[in-house]
Amino acid sequence: MEVAEKKNKNKRYKPILEAIPDWPVYQLSKNRKEFIEEVAQKAFQEIKKNRPTTKQLVDELEATVYREQQRMKRNRWRVDAADEPQFWSNVKEELVALTSRPIDDVQPKAEELLHRIVSRYANEIAGNFKANSYRLTREIVKFWFARLLNGARVKKFGAFFRNRYTLRDKIQIVGKVKQLRTLAKEGTVVMVPTHFSNLDSILIGWIIHSLGLPAFIYGAGLNLFNIKIFAYFMNSLGAYKVDRRKKNVPYLETLKFYSMLAVQKGAHSIFFPGGTRSRSGAIEGHLKLGLLNSTIEAQRNLYMDTPEGQPVRKIFIVPVTLNYHFVLEAPDLIDEYLTAKGRDRYLPEQDKYGSFQLIRFLFKFFTKGSNISVSIGRGLDVMGNYVDDLGRSIDAQGRVIETRDYFVSLGEVTVDKQREDEYTRMLSNKIVTEYHRINRVFASHLVAFVAFEMWQKKHSKLDLFGLLRLPEEDQVLLYEEFRAACKRVRKQIYQLKAEGKVYHATHLKGNIDLVIRHGLENVGIFHLNRPLLMNKEGNIITRDFNTLYYYHNRLNGYELEKFI
Fold it and tell me: What is the number of other CB atoms lying within 10 angstroms of the CB of residue 421?
């Protein structure tokens, strides 16, 4: 990984597809109307299949209307369509009218209502990639990020308009970059990153462009479209909208088929399989299986639609870990986690961030020496087998295997939901394992983990919530004890790296006092109450145990607590 880091840093990658009209996302947008109709029809057929009787279908429609009307009463957003109340009121009236119809007329009318609903959802979800908007946004981001970074680095106003430094000085890309570029040529890539911060989507977007890859489609929360300027660019860049308020079956099926058919048609995609940002700060251990299952269904459909012996476009899963010294939202995220975990045993503290604080954060991000890195994992097939640089699946013994065989029963590719659910669990477990393997340990992770574990061992009779209320006079660690523990844990991290179970940043090497200083300077650098710092006597203290716990959790799962 370190060899790759040195090789990849500051490297410029030639686009794998020069012309935007050749990009899969462009082709999807070019046939947008037909694609939306196909999504709606597939969702319609799936719901009909799972609700085969007239009563089941009508019950599902009634439940959908009820939930949608409750959503509009309790949680309307500015981005919601103006005609929503009227639409759902009309659907409700037509459903009520079904009770007076002859039984033979009910099914066709119910199906017509269902098709109307899923068509509306498909149009709402669909992105609308525009080449000109993509080029404009790309140049704006490159210009302003580069100038802001440059101006901050050299501390001269005039330098703001010169391009002496680039984002490469701030963001390091390590790992299987060459393989990722090859797989994007050979098949369809589904990138599955860890999810810690609202910055993740922006960061991944820049990484994709930086690596010379065509634009990926991705699901963006509908709430982000409340801001008109964001809505314009995101809608034009191929983002499709995900409304997490909607939990009804017609919406979820439509969303599933949108993402599945897009992948099936060759559109490279980004899924955050954790479903949302990690509230605890730990690497995701349990993934949402729905989107992962849709990639398996898409691969199976490609095999079913292609005669045996003909080449089939493979779908490749690429795990990615995003590595930060600090996460802007950490205090709020850990509050949510502890509130859910502790209930009445936990009293949350307030540390909210408004727009002014966000500007301050961005300024500090570009002016402070705190870097981030993106670790690209080895490609997988949809069953979780590694693939080689040619995209061929490899089993545990290193033999080339045929992915199609996983879907064959009695000599033919078949649909088997139970079998594919098991494949989904296999893929999920493999991604979680890869997250931990390609995770890149920073000095900030090290010092946070060691400090919290030391306090926990010193007060072993306290549970987590008792420890978080530890009196200030007990929130001190002698530096020499802390230093010795950091050395022991770092030595074990070296051993884990030698075994291929984790990676670490190059700044974790060298004099342990300098490593500790680097960690203390960077951990939670933006927070009003620093989670870890050195007092006047040279010992280690905390101003925020909750946030320290958040950063400590990044190294959960490696059994490093044994070395404290």
Answer: 13
Q: Residue 533 has which token pair? A: 């710092």
Cα distance from N-terminal residue to C-terminal residue, the chain = 27
Torsion of CA 346, 351, 354, 358, to 10 degrees: -120
Least confident of 250-264, 334-348, 515-529: 334-348
Instruction: For residues 216 and 433, give the distance between their C-alpha atoms in angstroms, rounded to a whole number.
Output: 24
Residue in the block written with tokens 């920073």: 442
> What pLDDT does residue 123 have?
95
Picking from 420, 437, 454, the residue at the C-terminal end of a domain is 437
How far apart are alpha carbons 327 and 348 in whole angstroms?
18
Q: Give the distance, in angstroms, between the CA of residue 28 and the centroid of all CA atoms in the same chain.
A: 22
Asked if residue 508 lies in contact with residue 493, where contact means CB atoms within 8 angstroms, the answer is: yes
Task: Write the CB contacts of 553 (distance below 8 Å, at least 6 apart in sequence).
Answer: 280, 281, 282
Q: What is the pLDDT of residues 417-476, one digit of tens each?
A: 999 999 999 999 999 999 999 999 999 999 999 999 999 999 999 999 999 999 989 999
Q: Which of 456, 461, 449 is nearest to 475 (CA)?
A: 456
* 465 in the same domain as 431: no
> pLDDT confidence of 339, banded at 50, 70, 90?
very high
452 and 433, same domain (yes or no)? no
Q: What does the longest C-alpha to C-alpha distance in the chain come to?
A: 86
In terms of residue numbers, what domain contains 172?
1-14+23-137+168-279+290-325+371-437
Alpha helices in 305-458 (DSSP H): 330-342, 355-367, 417-438, 443-458
Clarify whether residues 420 and 455 are in a common domain.
Answer: no
CB 166 within 8 Å of CB 11: no
Q: Examine the pLDDT at 414 and tell me if it is beyond 90.
A: yes
Output the 3-class SS for 436-456.
Answer: HHHCEECHHHHHHHHHHHHHH
Q: Which of 437, 467, 491 is the last residue of a domain?
A: 437
Segment holding 374, helix H or strand E = strand 372-376
3-state DSSP assignment of residue 368: coil
State whether 118 and 228 are in the same domain: yes
Are 377 and 513 members of one domain? no
Distance from C-alpha of 177 to C-alpha of 12, rounded to nearest angstrom: 12
Half-sphere exposure of 559 (CA within 13 A, CB side): 3
In the DSSP assignment, the letter for residue 540 is: E
CA distances from 277 to 196, 340, 553 (A): 5, 15, 14
The residue among 424, 445, 429 whose CA lies nearest residue 490 is 445
Of 25, 23, 19, which is closest to residue 237 (Cα–Cα)? 25
- The answer on 431 and 480 residing in a single domain is no
In the chain, the number of structural domains is: 2
The C-alpha R_g of the chain, in whole angstroms, comes to: 26
The H or E element that residue 57 is part of is helix 54-74
Residue 233: pLDDT band by 50, 70, 90 thresholds? low
Q: Which residues contact 519 (CB under 8 A, 6 or more apart)?
A: 442, 443, 444, 445, 446, 447, 448, 532
Read off the DSSP letter of residue 537. T
Same domain, 433 and 508: no
User: What are the CB-based long-range contacts (under 8 Å, 24+) for 400-404?
Assistant: 403/299, 403/314, 404/303, 404/308, 404/312
